Amino acid sequence: MRVPSNPLLLLGPTIILLFAVAFIFAWTLDRPRRHLLLFGIAGFLFCMGTLCQILAVPAAPGPNAVVSAFIYTISVLTFNEGLLIRSSKHTPWLAQCGILFLIVAGTAYFFYVDRNVWIRVYILNFGFGLICLVTAWRVRALRLGQMTERILFWTLLIFSIQFILRTLLTQQFIVPDATAFGLSPFWLALQYSLAVLGVALALALLGVAVGDVIEDLRRERAIDSLTGLLNRRGFQEGAAPCMHDPRSLPLSVVVADIDHFKQINDALGHAAGDEVLRTLGKVIRQAARRIDLCGRLGGEEFVLLLPNCDAEGAAAFAERLRAAISATRFAGLPDTWRVTASFGLAEKRPDESLSDLLVRADAALYRAKHAGRDRVERHTETMLGQPLGQTDRLSIDPV
After folding, report:
1. Going by fewer Cβ within 10 Å, which terminus of the chain is more open, N or C?
2. In angstroms, rounded to a whole number, what is the distance separating the alpha carbons of residues 185 and 171?
3. 381 near 372, Cβ under 8 Å?
C-alpha cells in the first residue's frame, strides 16, 4: 500500500535498527547466546517490513500487502523464537512454517480473491498478538525471576495485548482505500504504538542481556573450574540462606576426602590427579539433588550441604556416594588403581553456625580416616572430646 511520506514515521524503524545492530554486535562477542542474533535479525526484518509499506516497495498494493505480511511474520516469529531459546524452549520448524503460511496466505486471499482490508488487518494484528501471548505464557517463569526478567515479561505481555486492543479501538477508522489508509488513525496508531512499545521491549531485552552477562560472571566467580562444583566462596554464599531458613530443616552437612590422593599425584602426575578430581565432581553432581549444595573447598576436599535431610538420610546418601566413587572407573589411572573416599557428617543443631557444623563433620571424617578409610562416620556426642585433626582444612568464615 502507498503511504504518504512522513519523516516521523521513520523514527521508530531507525531506533529499532540501532537496537538490531547492538544485539548482533553483542552476539559477535558472545556467540553461544544465539538469542541475541535472533533479536537482531528480528529488528532488521521489522525495519524492512515498515519501510516496505512506508516507501511502497513493491508499489502495487497487492504485492506490497503480501510481501510486508511475509516480512513482518518472519520478524515476529524470529523474535519470539529468540525469547524461547533464552528460556531453553523451542517452537518446531513445522509449526513456524504453518503459522507463516496461514498469515501470508490469508493476507493474499483477502486481497486477490475476497478483497477485504478489515479481515487482512485482523489476520495480521490478531495473529501477531496471539503468537506473542503464547510466548509470554511459555516464558511466564520470567515473572518470578530477576528484576530485568520481570520487566521483560510484563513488557512482552503489554506488547502482545496492544496488537489486539489497538485494533479493536481503531477498527472504525480502517478504510478500504490504500491512499486513505495511510492517513487513517489506525495506521498512525499502529506505527507510533509499535515504535514506543518496540523500543520499550528492546530496552527490556537489552537489560536482560546485560543481566545475563553479570549473572554468568557471578556464577564463574562461584564455580570451581576443574570440578564444576561450587568453590569455597560460592559454597559459603549459597549456604548462608539455608543455614537461616527454617524450611531447610533438618539440615545436614557431609564432608569428603579422597583417600591417598597424594599418592596419585606423586606416582602418576598432576594431570592424572586433575582427571580424578574432574570425574569425582561429575559423580557428586549426579548423586546430589537439585536443592543440595556441592562444593570443593580445595585440594581433594569436598563438602555437601543437604537441606531437608536429617543425619540418617545424610548417612544413607553418603554411603551411596561412597559406593559410587568406589565403583567408578577413572580415566588416566591403571586398572589396578581404585579411588575411594572417606566421609564425615553432622546434622545442624539449633542456632549452630556453618563453621561449627563443619567442625563437627570434619571430626567424623577424621575418625573415618583413622578407622581404615573408604567409610562413612557420623558425628556423635561421644566425639566431643576427641582431637579434630584436619579441621583447619575445612574452616570457613562464620555465617
Report:
1. C
2. 9
3. no
Q: Describe the crossing of helices 117-138 and 93-112 by its angle, rounded to 10 degrees.
A: 160
Contact between 361 and 311 (Cβ < 8 Å): no
Phi and psi (nearest 5°) for 20? Answer: -60, -45
Question: What is the crossing angle of helices 147-170 and 185-222, to 10°?
Answer: 170
Q: For 300, list phi and psi in degrees, rounded to 5.
A: -105, 25
Q: Looking at the DSSP assignment, which residues form a beta bridge with residue 255?
A: 303, 344
Catalytic residue among 81, 149, 300, 377: 300
Rounded distance, CA 325 to CA 279, Å?
Answer: 9
Q: What's the rounded Cα separation, in Å, for the pair 394 and 374?
A: 19
What residue type is 37 in one-letter code? L
Total count of residues recorded for the chain? 399
Note whether 294 and 230 are within 8 A (CB). yes
Asked if 312 is an active-site residue, the reply is no
Q: What is the pLDDT of residues 189-222, one digit of tens each?
A: 666 677 777 788 889 999 999 888 887 777 778 8
- What one-letter code names the amino acid at 24? I
